[in-house]
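Follow-up to my post from last week.
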Amino acid sequence: MAPGGGATILHADLDAYYASVEQLLDPSLRGRPVAVGGGVVLAASYEARACGVVAGMPGWRARRLCPGLVTVGGHFAEYQRLAERVVEVLRSFTPVVERVSIDEAFLDVAGARRLFGPPARIAASLRRRVRDQVGLPISVGVARTKHLAKIASQVAKPDGLVVVEPDEEGRFLAPLPVGLVWGVGPATRARLAASGIDTIGQLATTPSVFLERALGQAVAGTLTSLAANVDPRGVAPGRSARSVGAQAALGRRIPSTELVWTTVGYLADRVAGRLRDAGQAGRTVTVRVRFADLRSCTRAVTVPRPVSATRTLAELATVAVHEVLEARPAERVVTLLGVSVGNLVPEKTLQLSLPFTGDVPGGGPATDPGGRLGARRWGSDRAVDAVRARFGRGSVGYARVILGHEGGVPEAFRELAERPVGGGAQRVRSPGAG
DNA sequence: TCTGGGGTCCTAGGACCC
DNA sequence: TCTGGGGTCCTAGGACCC
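User reply:
Got it. Predicted complex:
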């Protein structure tokens, strides 16, 4: 909703979050290039970014780019704890806080003006209090819409504040690169550049018919509403997840029957466990297989009854992975397997029937004509869930030895990145390059 | 010496039904 | 003999975001 009055939407974004926490915890890291993660860079400090280090980059390449780079394993529990303290600071200004990830949130301070003054002053004191009380740098953008506030906070980084007053919007946006627009990534940017469009100002003078043909209806719509300063999205708590998935990079591996069954078993265990915790089950199972050239192939299957049993999910996913492999006989190695469940519905009852019968490669026979096995599976899953609830997720589970190769990501990092399923809880995701 | 993990949404085409 | 249009569901791939 485009507010009738002034700029009251704030976008608050912690700078290089994981790396900043590391520099807070260990003062000797301050001012130095820091990368969180070993095999792959999960986050980089601004000093590291200055040498070209970015999230997602292989560790060896980051160290080559940046000889003084300090690599740390990561204090994932601290990331969670400190982010909660930052959110407490935000909520001390207004209850209207929408968290979009672990390090990022929108606020609408329209109702807080009488108490705390104009939005620009609120933003400044918010930044000061996060710095004083938590010790972290945070950038804030202030504008009339979420989209514009987000662009403003990107411009403000690092450790800055940018306020876009309503009568300055056009002048503010015009010189900015199109890549700052939400939904415009590398591919769209390249396509626009091919037409000579590099700035948001140039976009504004481009016929919408052209944009729609070149970019599709959805992205063109985003651009149009930005240009018109209309943003249909108000500040509100996030929706719950619509799918739950897990994936594991494997290095280069021959996809033996055993490797597939074991890896998919581990992934299905994670996914189904999270589904059951949330009282959800899903009808569509999607697997992803990535090959040596990093291109991936997906296969989806939709079954009549929602799935949340670990074994059932593992069987469906294993069969799907083998179908992909059979469709690509030329591929000799796989580099990643993924399992995801969508079409979620609240789980009502036991899953008494299996979607198919027959042998599962690596998993033995899955024949269950009477459906009794389904009930037993439900019971044993529940038993595992109960032990985990008491003693933690690592207390029972699939052997993860297969994932012990170099470059695997810590379990705690996976958990940080999980979005809560069901219940309309806060959305918490991992920070990006920011 | 090769590239993490969690998600969302869009698009296009096909099957199927009325 | 030839042929309509709309709607829904599903699948595969891809772009994008954090």
